[in-house]
Every structure is written in structure tokens, then in C-alpha cells.
């Protein structure tokens, strides 16, 4: 498979349960065509888009610029209900909010909204479940149910933007004040690049200027992957400015075959070559995600090897995010002790690669991907 540009069909999720067509699935031109097919004048598409993407509403009663008779028809056909909130749980003084959603077919998925003094970040899901089978990940333990539609991905973002706009999350001093969603990370449930076309379309809806989309900067969007090398190269060729995050978790193929089974298909060196192609093509640094697991991948020699490989393949274009593992109930995997974590970070930095520890939130609300969905409603 080395050098192949074909996407991995083995990871395609079944199409069962996909939701009906939604405005967010469609390009601007397609929206106008859809509205015209309903017997309405094409400019109604822009009005509908303005309500969804700018005013963040799907309530037909709020769309007073559209005649009532047309309103019900347009909303019914192009803004069908996608996600129903099952429950939302908060911690960190209310500045972290995890939401469990139920799709129209009963599928469960999650998103996590985190408010900081200088930004608000939403972690979104691209699949219900995940087929990558990483043994330390709660989502991977549950397997893959299906891909999410473009609109199901985008609707997670719209809902979070509305929560912040309406002042439903406190700011850094604990006061509920209106805020603005600034950053999106595709690091929730699923492997984004295994749902490539819908994720790409979702990124465009998220970043297109309003009312075509939500108007969030491409540079504020991060797409993560466990290392689907051909899809990384394909994403680079889109010439977008989103950041790529590669979940490496260990620098050696022997252990990575166990921790990230897709490594059997695209080993470490091939993934890093694809990451370098992405960095060279886009001009953006690549984040290397490394979940630190006690006595598994936290040895000093692995820190040294990680720095060596990243110097060889990416150099200054790499930034390592060490992630203290958020263990799942009953799992044999646990987070590394803090002294071990500090030494690992020190050695990677000493090896010439910038390395920091990611801020972790929400352990008391099962904020690791997949935990809330695994608990059900």
C-alpha cells in the first residue's frame, strides 16, 4: 500500500440509519436548487442559511422574514431534526460541558465544549463509535456503528455556538456571560479521515463565511487521525489551512502495532512522511498526539526515539502534545505518574522537539471519548 492514494475501503462504515437531507449537507448552489425544487424562490435558501448558520436556530417561528406557509415547508424539508440532547454534564466550575446526543435512528454520539479565558473549544465526533480498535480508547472498545452525516457533524458546532452565545456557560471567573465559539477539534468519537468526504464537507460548512457557513477560521480547526497516510496526503492536497493532529502514541512499530492497529497497514515512518507532506503543502505545523500510559509507552528511551524520528521527518514543523491518559472504568491502562510524565516531556524537548502537556478536563464527567455514550442514556 506504500504510496497508494486510494482510501481504505475496509474502514467504510455502513450507511444504515443515515439521516434525511439537511441544509448543512448542501453547498450554496445545492441549497438554491433544493429550495426551487420545493416551489420557492431560490433566495429563500440564503434566508434559511442565515437562520441556521448565523442566528443558530431551526425554529420556524423565529423565521419571520419567510412567509409562514413557505416557512413550514422549507424547515420540514431542509432543517429536519438531527440531534436530540440526551443529557449534558458539566464540571470545572461549569467551564467544561459534555453533551450526549441521540441521532434520529437512536445512535449515540458526544461532543465536549471547553471554555477558557481566551477561547472556547469544541471537541466533536465524526463517527458513532470507531473502527480503529485502539485498546486504550473507550470509543475504540465499542467498535464502529456508522459514519455521521455532514450535517450531524455541523449541528454539534451550531448547538455549541448557541450555548455560548446565550450565556449558558460561565466565563473564567464563574459568571455566565455570552461568548463565542473559536476553535473546533475533530477529536471526539471516530476516525475523521475514515469518513473523509463528509468531514471535508463539514469543515467547509464550519469555515465558510456566514451565511454560507459558520464563519470559523480554518486555522482554528484541527483534524486528527491515527495515521491513515493516503488520506493525510489527500487532505493536504485540498490546500486548506486546518491543522493536522497525528495520534502517534509511540515511536516504535512493535508497540504501535498493538496500541494503534492501523499501524500494521501504515507504519510510523510512512505516517510521518505523510505528515511532512501535509506540513510542506500547507505551511502548518503538525501536532503529534501522545497519550502517556503507565509502563507501556512512557519509557525514557521512547522519548528519545520520538524526538529523533520527529527531527528526521518534521523538525520544527512538529509539536508534541503529551496527553495524560483518561482511563476508562475497568481498563488495565492507566496514566503515567507525574514525575515520569515530566521526564518524558523534558527529554523530548531536550531532543530538539517542542513538547508540552495538554490541559486535561472532565475526568469526573467521563469526558474521555466514548465514555458517556458507553454509559447510555
UniProtKB/TrEMBL annotation:
Cofactor field: [4Fe-4S] cluster
Bound cofactor: record note: Binds 1 [4Fe-4S] cluster. The cluster is coordinated with 3 cysteines and an exchangeable S-adenosyl-L-methionine.
Domain of life: Bacteria
UniProt KW keywords: 4Fe-4S, Cytoplasm, Disulfide bond, Iron, Iron-sulfur, Metal-binding, Methyltransferase, rRNA processing, S-adenosyl-L-methionine, Transferase, tRNA processing
GO CC terms, sorted: cytoplasm
Major localisation: cytoplasm
Domain Radical SAM core as annotated: residue spans: 116-364
EC annotation from Swiss-Prot or TrEMBL: 2.1.1.192
UniProt cross-references to Pfam families, sorted A to Z: Radical_SAM, RlmN_N
The name this protein goes by in its record: Probable dual-specificity RNA methyltransferase RlmN
Amino acid at each position: 500500500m506504500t504510496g497508494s492514494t486510494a482510501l481504505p475501503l475496509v474502514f467504510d462504515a455502513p450507511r444504515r440509519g443515515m439521516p434525511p437531507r439537511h441544509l448543512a449537507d448542501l453547498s450554496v448552489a445545492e441549497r438554491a436548487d433544493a429550495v426551487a425544487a420545493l416551489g420557492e424562490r431560490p433566495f429563500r435558501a440564503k434566508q434559511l442559511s442565515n437562520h441556521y448558520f448565523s442566528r443558530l436556530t431551526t425554529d420556524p417561528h423565529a423565521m419571520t422574514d419567510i412567509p409562514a406557509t413557505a416557512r413550514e415547508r422549507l424547515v420540514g424539508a431542509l432543517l429536519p431534526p438531527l440531534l436530540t440532547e440526551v443529557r449534558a454534564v458539566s464540571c470545572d466550575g461549569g467551564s467544561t460541558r459534555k453533551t450526549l446526543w441521540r441521532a434520529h435512528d437512536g445512535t449515540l454520539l458526544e461532543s465536549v465544549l471547553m471554555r477558557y479565558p481566551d477561547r472556547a473549544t469544541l471537541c466533536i465526533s465524526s463517527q458513532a463509535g470507531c473502527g480503529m480498535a485502539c485498546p486504550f480508547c473507550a470509543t475504540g472498545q465499542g467498535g464502529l456503528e456508522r459514519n455521521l452525516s455532514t450535517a450531524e457533524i455541523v449541528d454539534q458546532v451550531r448547538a455549541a455556538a448557541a450555548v455560548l452565545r446565550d450565556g449558558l456557560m460561565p466565563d473564567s471567573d464563574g459568571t455566565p456571560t455570552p461568548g463565542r465559539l473559536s476553535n473546533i477539534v475533530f477529536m471526539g468519537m471516530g476516525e475523521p479521515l475514515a469518513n473523509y468526504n463528509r468531514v471535508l464537507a463539514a469543515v467547509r460548512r464550519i469555515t465558510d463565511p456566514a451565511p454560507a457557513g459558520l464563519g470559523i477560521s480554518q486555522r482554528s480547526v484541527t483534524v486528527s487521525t491515527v495515521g491513515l497516510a493516503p488520506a493525510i496526503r489527500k487532505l493536504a492536497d485540498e490546500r486548506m489551512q486546518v491543522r493536522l493532529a497525528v495520534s502517534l502514541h509511540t515511536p516504535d512499530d512493535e508497540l504501535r502495532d498493538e496500541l494503534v492497529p492501523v499501524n500494521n497497514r501504515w507504519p510510523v515512518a510512512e505516517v510521518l512522511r505523510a505528515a511532512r507532506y501535509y506540513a510542506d503543502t500547507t505551511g502548518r505545523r503538525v501536532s503529534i498526539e501522545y497519550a502517556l500510559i503507565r509502563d507501556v509507552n512512557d519509557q525514557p528511551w521512547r522519548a528519545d526515539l520520538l524526538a529523533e524520528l520527529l527531527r528526521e521527518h518534521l523538525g520544527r514543523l512538529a509539536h508534541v502534545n503529551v496527553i495524560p491518559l483518561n482511563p476508562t472504568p475497568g481498563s488495565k491502562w492507566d496514566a503515567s505518574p507525574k514525575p515520569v510524565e515530566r521526564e518524558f516531556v523534558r527529554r523530548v524537548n531536550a531532543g530538539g522537539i517542542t513538547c508540552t502537556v495538554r490541559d486535561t478536563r472532565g475526568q469526573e464527567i467521563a469526558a474521555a471519548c466514548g465514555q458517556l455514550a458507553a454509559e447510555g442514556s
